Amino acid sequence: MKRHALATVILSTTAFLITSPASAVEGNLPPPKCAAQSDGEAPASAYIIASSAAVRAAPSATAELLGYAPIATPLNLFCLQEGWAKVSLTGAMSINGWMRADLAGAELPTRDAALAALRSAQGGNPAALRTQSERVLAFAPLDESNFEAVLQEVRAAGDVEWTQKLERRLALLRAPTVTRAPNEVKLLLAIEGQSMNAVATFTDGMWQGYSASNGDDEEQRKADQKFANRYLSPGRAYNFYARGGVDGMVLSGGRQELSCSSMASDFKRVGGKPAVNRGLAANFPLTEQPAGQDAAATDGQKRAALDVAAAMLKAQGVPAAGIARLMRAPAGDEPGLVISTVPAPGQTAPILVLSSEYSNAESGQGHSFLLVMEMDRSGKYGATHRYFKKMKTYEDGGSYRLLAYVDTDGDGQQELVLAYRGYETWWYEMLQREGKGWKTLFKGGQGGC
Fold this sequence. Notes:
By secondary structure, this protein is α+β, with helices and mostly antiparallel strands. Helices cover about 20% and strands about 35% of the residues. It has helices at about 110-120, 125-140, 145-155, 160-175, 220-230, 300-315, 320-325, and strands spanning about 45-50, 50-55, 65-70, 75-80, 85-90, 95-100, 105, 185-190, 195-205, 205-210, 235-240, 245-255, 265-270, 280, 340, 350-360, 365-375, 380-390, 400-405, 415-420, 425-435, 435-449. The strands form five sheets. It has a six-stranded antiparallel beta barrel. A five-stranded antiparallel β-sheet has the order 6-5-4-1-7, with no helix packed on it. A four-stranded antiparallel β-sheet has the order 15-16-17-18. It starts with about 45 loop residues before the first strand and ends with a strand.
């Protein structure tokens, strides 16, 4: 099938912003009618050209909603049927369905082009002005400067009502509110690097690990997209927790376009300490305790814990040279020993979480470990939770790190959240105190390539 000139903009709608419909005309060279399409005919390449487009299970406005695809999403367009296009979307929204044909276009839309169209829409056409405003905002829904650029044009056009609505939305972006509807699950997300990843739900008084599907199950992909529509929609606010307490909020930026399976979104910090980008997010209160400082450990305490760790590694058959490499500090992109401290209520010494990884650059052989170390009544550190792995190849590599700690159940004890990174795979684990040791409450957020 040839590449076709499709439609121009007709609709403006996002999960976070206000809907503003307009109209447009189909292109001169549409794809064939679905009934006339041959089985072997290749699809046309196209993009979403509205701020977002609803993808449905059938060519009808009342058909099951599979999800919203944001502007500039690439798609394969197979055929047309009475104003609807049969499409296959790739990236974060990897599903097949139907969308309005006039919401797809052959050229990749850009923010600069949308902003130029907004400036040219000031000639007394309120519908066009609002439609183009939404298109610009859809490219960066969490960017306050993007809002300001749109507001400047809308104010210049003299649309007082639309100006006031945009100003209210910008105020909400700067001071959001965390809400959870009665029919929504309690959700926990891991915040790490540039992503927030759904990892667990709290239902019937229990944590359950959550992960996106990793396969070709169409029904599961639909369920995943519905989940993303609700919980990762741009502007959705969550409480943020770091260093044992609440530290402002995070806003979801919409499900990420990833080549690997994941239920992840980019995010924006609001309030708290913006420099802290490792922790947990939740759509319900975990604790009212404000974030504090990580517990301090003395040099003597660290040395005592390291001595115990070295003895345990030796007992696992790690040679002296391997132990020395595992005990080195990280350097550049090279992993190394990380010592994290966690307050221990009622104890004079903090909990120490030691983790490290080393592998030979050529063979991939090496070791990784994580130890939760606590001081006993005699003043000696011992391991109350341990993980050890001997790597045989590069693909076999993987290691844990402490991501966060917070008291999630109000018992006065911190739960520990660990992040695992392996060869093209990852997951998160929450540990809860059990006697003198720890038990795994859930494993979730698994992803892979």
